[in-house]
Design goal:
484 residues; Rossmann fold; 3-stranded mixed sheet
Length: 484
């Protein structure tokens, strides 16, 4: 199957009942003089580009965890498209952003296969790779000067360039460039929220789905610079920072891995309020109404970070050390909430409750309130179902959203799980296609349309809608959760 794009022709294939086009480049390889610089659109190619296999993943740690033969490279700015047909029909477009803490993951990961999500739906899906870790979010503007002022937002700028590619090319895949729905989980959900407060992304998308994410990873330039110094120190170039430009990508990734020992790896990287890509705090941007009338579906999981042994007798010193690594100067605010939970729960349970609230739940609820107060229609949810895992942990909803069959090696899942997966997928697809997640298989799902009282859908075997006070989040904790 061949279609013609702005840069040339591409040839895809039929796969799992849908047309798949994989590994299409949307930017030049960001190496040499382009390393630590904004992405540059790809140039035209001759002939037909064979888009039948996934492209390289971004350089990252944990490469040994992948059992396939896909490469890891700085030459990673590629995207995939899944579509029911190549025609002139204008279908809704899902622009899916993978998670991984801004330091891992790829658009080729098993769970993000577009065929699983949109098979049987009249919807197009796009999934783009973006630069990760130090190569995508290391802020060097205050260290190397004006030429590198954009370096803290490269992953975000990659996503924006990919969205521009969608606007220019998605009609060639039967998609509607005027109905693009951002969707992501974890760092992908954060990326969706980040794009909502980035002026350069305005007009490139029309709805947003934020799962286990918010704008909590956006940081000020001082914090970003201090975090960059940690990586430079581990790289051995703290005294001669310009040497990072000639270091190998592998050396840089090794240095960021070592930096995880000093800073919680989930918070080492994130976008920066640099006055160029992100102009002001997310709160100010949203409160001023600059987001526009974007409908939003947002939520988190009840037990996102419940990983401790409930019988573990965690000491106060151990908790304080962990909070220092995760929150920096905000640690005492978090510790106060931890001590409050400890009045009723064991040290281990209180720690997991604190982490779940302060890393995910609080930020999601605060963003819900901000958007609703600004006039956006926001549908709130919480994933409560423990399923085969026994807890509604981080990522546990993804098998349900992307859909699975109990015959597809999902051990422990049963017919009830399959039914819940169907209901969740229906709700998400209803939002994608209609701008409202309401379906006949769930209770009436009302939006939060003011910044005061609202509603939250609890997704479980028996789902229910709860009325909530949108100001019930932990207001002492700043939206920027790590501050140095």
């Amino acid at each position: 199957m061949i279609t013609t794009l702005k840069n040339g022709k591409v040839c895809g294939m039929e796969e799992n009942g849908i047309l798949a086009f994989k590994g299409i480049p949307f930017a030049k390889t960001p190496v040499g003089k382009l390393r630590f610089k904004p992405p540059v659109p790809v140039t035209n190619w001759e002939g037909v580009f064979e888009a039948k296999k996934f492209g390289n993943r971004s350089l990252q740690t944990g490469e040994q965890e992948y059992k396939d033969n896909l490469g890891f490279s700085e030459d990673c700015l590629n995207l995939n498209v899944w579509t029911p047909a190549i025609d002139h029909k204008k279908r809704p477009v899902i622009f899916y952003i993978h998670g991984g803490g801004h330091f891992s993951g790829a658009n080729s990961d098993e769970f993000f296969d577009g065929a699983h999500l949109v098979r049987g739906r009249d919807v197009v899906m796009v999934a783009a790779n973006y630069r990760l870790g130090a190569l995508g979010y290391l802020y060097l503007g205050d260290i190397l000067g004006e030429e590198y002022k954009d370096s803290g937002n490269l992953g975000l700028l990659d996503q924006i360039l990919a969205l521009k590619w969608v606007k220019e090319n998605i009609a060639a895949f039967g998609g509607d460039p005027d109905l693009v729905v951002l969707m992501g989980q974890s760092a992908g959900g954060k990326s969706v929220a980040n794009l909502m407060v980035t002026p350069a992304a305005k007009g490139l998308f029309h709805r947003a789905i934020i799962q286990s994410g918010s704008v909590q990873c956006i940081r000020d330039t001082h914090t970003a610079t201090e975090l960059a110094k940690v990586v430079l120190d581990q790289l051995g170039v703290a005294a001669t920072p310009w040497d990072i430009l000639i270091k190998s990508g592998a050396d840089i990734i090794a240095a960021q891995k070592a930096a995880y020992e000093a800073i919680d790896r989930g918070h080492l990287f994130g976008p920066v309020i640099d006055g160029r890509t992100i102009l002001e705090s997310p709160e100010k941007y949203i409160e001023s109404g600059k987001v526009g009338e974007i409908p939003v579906l947002i939520g988190y999981n009840k037990e996102e970070l419940y990983y401790s042994d409930p019988e573990d007798r965690r000491t106060a010193e151990e908790s304080i050390k962990a909070f220092h690594k995760c929150y920096g100067k905000n640690w005492e605010i978090v510790y106060r909430k931890y001590k409050e939970y400890q009045k009723e729960y064991s040290a281990a349970v209180a720690f997991d409750m604190t982490q779940t609230l302060c890393v995910y739940g609080n930020a999601a609820m605060a963003l819900t309130q901000l958007l609703a107060a600004a006039g956006n229609k926001v549908w709130s949810y919480r994933w409560d179902y423990g399923g085969a895992i026994g807890r509604a942990q981080h990522f546990s909803e993804m098998a349900y959203l992307f859909g699975f069959s109990i015959d597809e090696s999902h051990k422990g899942y049963d017919k009830q799980d399959e039914a819940l997966a169907r209901r969740m997928n229906e709700a998400w697809m209803s939002f994608v296609c209609n701008g409202d997640p309401t379906t006949r298989d769930l209770p009436d799902w009302y939006s939060c349309s003011t910044g005061e009282m609202g509603y939250r859908m609890h997704l479980d075997k028996e789902s229910h809608l709860e009325q909530i006070n949108l100001h019930c989040y932990y207001q002492e904790l700043p939206m920027q959760i790590i501050k140095l």
